[in-house]
Amino acid sequence: MSLIRVLSLCCCMLPASLLAAEVQIRLLDQQGVPLSDAVAELQQAELQAALSAQAVKPAEVAQKDLTFVPFVSAVQKGTQIEFPNQDKTRHHVYSFSPAKVFELKLYAGKPEAPVLFDKAGVVALGCNIHDYMQAFVYVGDSPYLAVSDNDGFVLLKDVPAGNYQLKVWHPWQDAEQPKVAVTVPAAAAIEIKLPVTRQEKPQKPKKGFGNSYN
Predict the structure, then answer these.
(1) pLDDT tens-digit map of 134-170
(2) Residue-by-residue DSSP string for 14-71
């Protein structure tokens, strides 16, 4: 038996969880313009159950130049997020979202402990001192999720072969989007259009009369 045939047989005998692939997704608005700050998540009930007991990496949402950075985060359920304040002024971070209600009262520097995001859903962040400050944390059930870049691309690495449901979300979307069936490995990049009403991201107000932001 040739070496090539032996290797082929060995690959066929490997469990699907070991046959990982990269999945490329491009997210566009209804006019076909690349959409940044969109989240793509590949969901599969069996895989999520197997990975639920594994430790997840911590994440960070900073306050910098009187804005939240990043504007949109995508984390797996069970992630602990740090909220360091890198500004000279103090912030009061909070959320009233059903997926996570919490409050970090007026503080500078780094809070004593991170916040555990233990329920899937979208968490809207605000600052009780600076009303215009806003950001979002998308908490997913799956480890295979990420936020699109400025060209609308999401690259998910090391995804086990299998059948998935692709869920997409954007803070400016006009309606909840239906999930899309995806088979991994995918033959080509997956392209999804989301109907959104574009807005300006929150940014530090310009200095002027009546503004006292530092």
Answers:
(1) 999 999 999 999 999 999 999 999 999 999 999 999 9
(2) S-GGG-EEEEEEEEEETTS-B--S-EEEEE-HHHHHHHTTS----EE-EEETTEEESS
The answer, as to whether pTM is greater than 0.85, is: yes
User: Tens digits of per-residue pLDDT, 54-93?
Assistant: 678 999 999 999 999 999 999 999 999 999 999 999 999 9
Say which residues have a Cβ less than 8 Å from residue 33's Cβ, sequence separation at least 6: none
Cα torsion 15, 42, 113, 89 to 10°: value is 150
19-53+143-199 carries CATH number 1.10.10.10: no
DSSP state letter for 152: S
- CB neighbour list of residue 12: distance below 8 Å, 6 or more residues apart: none
Q: Tell me how many degrees the CA angle 152-133-83 measures, rounded to the nearest 5.
A: 85
Quick one: tokens of 157? 């690495």
Cα–Cα distance, 115 to 117 (Å, whole number)? 6
Go through 138-156 and write b for each residue having 16 or more CB atoms within 10 A of its CB, e for each that does not: bbbbbbbbbbbeeebbbeb
Chain position carrying tokens 């999520």? 48
CATH topology of domain 55-142: Immunoglobulin-like (2.60.40)
Residue in the block written with tokens 């740090």: 82
In the chain, domain spans: 19-53+143-199, 55-142
